[in-house]
Amino acid sequence: MPCPLCSSTDHKLRHRVKEYAYLTCQSCGVSVLSPFPQPEEIKAWYADQTYFSLEDGNQGYTDYLSLESGLQRTFARRNKFLGSASFWKGKKILEIGCALGFYPEVLRDIPDMEYTGLDLNTHAINVVREKGFRGIQGDIENIPEKNHYDITVFFDVLEHIPDPFAFFASIQQRMNTEGHILFTTPSTKSFLAGISGKNWVSYIVPHHLLLYEPSSLKRLLAACGFNTIKIAPDIQWVPLSFLNERLSHLIGSLKGLTPHLIKMENAGRKILVPVSNGQMLVRAKKNSEHPINSAATARRNFSC
Ligand SMILES: [Zn+2]
């Protein structure tokens, strides 16, 4: 199969994961899931009402809600990467893949901010609306082109997108001149990816379709009319008990320590610890001198 980004057929096996494989394009560096699912199949996964519970099960999360305070601290750090509180003031914000609406909770205190969450999942959108936020069911194409946002965020989304040219072109068309995007996606060049081998937490088949390295991502952004400002390793804050549970699966020798740490937390010490998740945190700005009117234009830019 030719590379979905650069059309090269020169690829190397990166890892086999269950009945799938990740192939790394030798020309542009992106890693591609093989076999690659059909677009209709992909949309059906996320529209499925059981999707969020399935995802939790895959990750070994015992209770997604218990992770909420960690998530909020993670989101606050990501926001700061884009700008201070005054930067966010009065901004029109779009979140793609808003899931159960944990992210907008950290935006509540920003004066005059206007938030819209977008998700394919009806259940997720209902939860977001119950929390008092604006929610739209669908994908980026369901947002009218006349709607222009100042900031578009999407966490853990890009790796699920089969056609990133269409995705970024659609975002670009719906952003203000000075608009910024802020997002996370796994980095195949991360330390965690390197040491984890085929057990890397981001090899989630068949959901993770495309995995990037910083250079292929920068080239993609440029082709789609965005200037990359900064790429940094993402940090996730998790409860100590959660980290401990993960580690004890990996390293048997830590098992002896586990009951003591859990006891500590049960005693009321809600300890959050920062961990590297192997993702990159990306900040980019709309390049208004290069408006992208179609996915085909972006694709052509990428090949040049
Ligand atoms: Zn390629």
Features:
304 residues; alpha/beta; Rossmann fold; seven-stranded mixed β-sheet; 11 strands; globular; binds zinc ion
- Binned, the helix content reads 25-40%
The CATH architecture term is: 3-Layer(aba) Sandwich
| CATH C-level | Alpha Beta
Order of helices and strands: EEEHHHHEEHEEHEHEHEHHEH
Distance between the termini: 21 Å
Query: Structural class, from helix and strand content?
Result: alpha/beta
Question: How many β-strands, per DSSP?
Answer: 11
Number of domains: 1
Number of helices: 11
User: Cofactors and ligands present?
Assistant: zinc ion
Stretches where pLDDT falls below 50 for ≥5 residues?
Answer: 55-62
Strand percentage lies at: 25-35%
Outline, from the CA principal axes? globular
CATH superfamily: Vaccinia Virus protein VP39
Main beta sheet: 7 strands, mixed
Written description of the protein model:
- By secondary structure, the protein is of the alpha/beta class.
- The chain is 33% helix and 27% strand.
- The protein has helices at 39-47, 51-59, 68-82, 85-88, 122-130, 164-173, 191-196, 214-223, 240-250, 258-266, 295-303, and strands at residues 11-17, 20-25, 31-34, 92-96, 114-119, 134-137, 149-155, 175-186, 210-211, 226-239, 272-286.
- The protein has a seven-stranded mixed sheet. Strands 1-2-3-9 form a four-stranded antiparallel sheet, with no helix packed on it.
- β2 and β3 (31-34) form a beta hairpin.
- α6 crosses α11, α8 (214-223) crosses α11 and α9 packs antiparallel against α10 (258-266).
- Residues 55-62 have low confidence and may be disordered.
- Zinc ion (ZN) binds at residues 3, 5-6, 8, 25, 27-28, 30.
